[in-house]
Predict the structure.
Amino acid sequence: MNVLITGASGGLGRALAIECAERGYNLFLTDINDTGLVSVKNGLERQFGTEIYIKCCDLTDEGETKTLIKFINNQDFKLDMLLNVAGIDYEGGFLQRGFEEIISILKLNIEATLRITREALLCRRPDSNFYVVFVSSLASMYPMPLKATYAASKRFLLDFSIALGQEMKKEKVTVLSLCPAGLATTPESICGIEAQGFWGSVTANRLEKVAHQTISRVLKNRHLYIPGVMNRFLSIVGKVIPPAIIAKLLYVRWNKAQKKWLVIR
């Protein structure tokens, strides 16, 4: 099994790389953080006997993405799985962030993710099963004040993954959307979980478990994975309560959490 992982030097990307290496998969890891990539590669090579390639790439740059795909093809690394982990968010309301920051969320979470997905599908192993994972978010289930752009971008990925999965079903392509809540991937994300208090603790997910279950479920041809009983319950609640009420409740929660987060940070 040959796997391409984007955002591979971050917390979730690293956890998925470890999970795949434990399963004996060959890996191609990419990230904008070259130092982080080298660190992950060296750690995995010391622990596992799997084949690992790395290449630094800014996925929002079309030229760099094409160079990445050309490099993959030159290694004759025919893909069996793509894990779309790379993504970005900025805390703060719509007018509190610079417009370039807002656009960068859309460029990476949507545009770049679709570009690398299309390229990966075009160079997948012929006449074989292929697996795609999109890292969406529990935030994709709701209209989220103070995280409006991020939540909307993740909603796009959720809807797109469902549609693409149906479109590519006859071509042996399985598409899964991963919708976690809090993940302790960076010091900032840990501060964010702490700032949410009770709700942060009950909705947070362990990276290792999420990584393991994500790979297991996509291999079983599942299409949606929401880690955690509480998070699955909240996703159901979001379907039965009117969006305007959900938005009001979430505004109260995130307004308090972000103010506290700024103090913790």
